[in-house]
Structure formats: C-alpha cells, structure tokens
Amino acid sequence: MFIVGLTGGIASGKSTVARRLVDHGAVHVDADALSREVVEPSTPGLAAVTAEFGAEVLADDGSLDRAALGAIVFADPDARGRLEAIIHPRVHTRTAELIAAAEKADPAAVVVYDVPLLVEARRELRFDLIVVCEAPADERIDRLLTHRGMPRTEAERRISAQASDEERRAVADVVIDTSGSLQHTLDQVDELWTDLSARAKDRARV
C-alpha cells in the first residue's frame, strides 16, 4: 500500500485534486469528513466540545453549530488549540481504522489522506509522499468570496490562521499548482497518478 498525504490551504483546489485521484482508483480518506463524523450528535466528541465551549455552540436540533464554533476558534488561537486537542486524536483513530481496512481490501492500494491541517497538526503519521496544492492567497480569497459567499474579512482570517505556503512547501514532496486552468491542474494530477500507481504496484510485488 502507498499512503499519500494531500494538503493545502482553504480554497487551494485540494478537493479537485482528490477527486481526480479517486477517479484514477485511489482510496480517499477525508479528514474534514471525519472531523464532522466524530462530533455528530450523541458522540463523545460532541460532548467534549460542548463541555469545553458551552451549549452556545449547539444548534436547536442538538447538532454542532459550526458557524458559532468557527466564530470562536478562528478569532482565538488558544480556543482553536483546545478544539484541535479534542478533534485531532479522534480523527487520527478513525483514519488508522480506514487505512487498515483499505490495505486489507487491496495491498496495492493508493490511499490519499486528505488533510488540510497536515502541517498545523504536527501529528506523526506515516506518509510515503506528501502532495501540497498551492495557489496565491489573493486567488484563494476570490474563490472563497465567489464560490462560498464568504465575507472578505472572514476569508482573510481563515487563510491567516493556517500554515503559510512556505511552511507547506517545506514538507512537500510534490507541489500541484492550482492557480491556472482546471486542465492544467488535472494534467499535473494525471502525471502524479502514473508515478503513484507504479510505485504502489512495485511495493506490492516485494
């Protein structure tokens, strides 16, 4: 099995890259999806978040009010750290379970672990390759304004709360430039897949 860490800042085109790799046959493990799963209603994760931040982060139906929680943690690095201490270990546990299941199903699988906070979390995970998606901050802000309807101040705050391009490049084995056309991005991913699939097959034969 070959494990790829896929990361990039908000609106960096990471989802597009992940979808293309899945189209080629990769197994996708999405840290964002898992971070939502571990705080679903009636989970220990949601109970821990509520105990830490109060009932005001709950919606009327008892689910997590992500907007309310985001307003707290993106404005306060200490609060964000407390939230990550709750979420990250639970996501890590589920990730390990899903990767083990993928390996059991196909020893030659390419697993793409899609994790926005790969640099920020600083958790020891075993990656065979780290892929970073990158686009200029001003372009990412435009994407957040245009496609997500996010206010500019919120977009800027979220980008500044994440690792810098330099920090991501420092851990990258491959950088995918997503600032050009969609086809330009897909061409880079296709080239990456050719290498990944060959390396995974070679490893499985050993």
Automatic annotation (TrEMBL):
It comes from the Bacteria. GO terms for molecular function: kinase activity. The keyword DNA damage does not apply. This is Dephospho-CoA kinase. Catalyzes the phosphorylation of the 3'-hydroxyl group of dephosphocoenzyme A to form coenzyme A. It comes from Agreia bicolorata. Transmembrane segments: none annotated. It holds the Pfam family CoaE. The gene is coaE.
